[in-house]
């Protein structure tokens, strides 16, 4: 008489096969994305120092002076689009020309306003480090590769959820499932390592994986998060704001920054986006204190330079839960905004695909040897 297998056992066996084959099929790209991501967490350590160090002692030059000093070095006498102050000592102030990643930038000493040089695009390291970034961002394949990386993030989320279900212990064994049994060897050692490391790293692994999906598919994930949390985008109304010159002169850049700082007194000035048309307000970026300061979501203050007042403030600390989740996706993925410990955890999460592949293959090989030995 054949005893029927319980449904939960059947489902777990099916899920185990799914987990196994997803890992087998996608192991190489997942390992490549994970390792490249770990390197990028500490990319600044690999970036060569600027050829000219900016002055970090003395009274900073005014924003208007920096903007005027950059103009003679502007590419093709272009109109400036942004001004960013240095985040740390020794770094230059940056005046941007043109939007997007292909824009030009003039680097300035923040104290003397001396032009230090020009560069194109973001300050990313050349050579090997740039290739590592492109591997992680789009698998060296442009827009199609970016979508593929996004789907690899979905695969990682599936592996994480299925792994959690497969790890879930029986009643009375919960505490032991977080540990590796002393003296364990062979298949049992690999299985317990696979499960214990997986559960201890589960939260960070899922955060980094989901945020990777967000970066690849921002519109779809924004819609999903806003649908789940029933939240509205606070940026949409602010981005449609207009101002009326009425023949008046715009306030100085320094005055615009002063108005923004007065709107959020506990925040520090980071950058300002200059309007392309007279009817557009200035957008001032401020850095909140605390965990937000080191790369976390920034505050945006929209300033009317004619009325000389703040007309809108987008402060992520005051967002709804859904909007805060959206605002934190990129910082969480990059390992910034939550201190050195979280940064280290994000670095380690990039090593997890390789660890899971090694322990998974080891379990499979040991099982095959056992079956072969039993057959003989």
What would you say this structure looks like, in words?
- The longest helix has 35 residues.
- Helix 1 crosses helix 5, helix 1 packs across helix 13 and helix 7 packs across helix 11.
- The chain has 376 residues and is α+β, with helices and mostly antiparallel strands.
- It folds into 3 domains: 164 residues; 58 residues; 88 residues, Roll (Nuclear Transport Factor 2, Chain: A).
- The protein contains 13 helices and 8 strands.
- The radius of gyration is 26 Å and the shape is elongated.
- A hairpin with an 8-residue loop joins strand 5 and strand 6.
- Strands 4-3-2-1-5-6-7-8 form an 8-stranded antiparallel sheet.
Question: Which short descriptors sum up this protein?
Answer:
Nuclear Transport Factor 2, Chain: A; eight-stranded antiparallel sheet; about 375 residues; single chain; 3 domains; alpha+beta
Topology:
Elements (H helix, E strand, L loop, with lengths): L6 H35 L1 H4 L16 H8 L9 E5 L8 E5 L6 E5 L6 E6 L7 H11 L3 H26 L18 H15 L1 H15 L1 H12 L4 H6 L13 H11 L4 E6 L8 E6 L11 E6 L4 E6 L6 H14 L4 H11 L2 H24 L1
Antiparallel strand pairs: 1-2, 1-5, 2-3, 3-4, 5-6, 6-7, 7-8
The Cα radius of gyration reads 26 Å
Measured distance between first and last alpha carbons: 27 Å
Structural class: alpha+beta
**Helix content bin:** 40-55%
Beta-strand segment tally: 8
- SS summary, helix count: 13
What is the N-to-C succession of helices and strands?
Answer: HHHEEEEHHHHHHHEEEEHHH
Strand order of the largest sheet: 4-3-2-1-5-6-7-8
User: Please, how many domains?
Assistant: 3
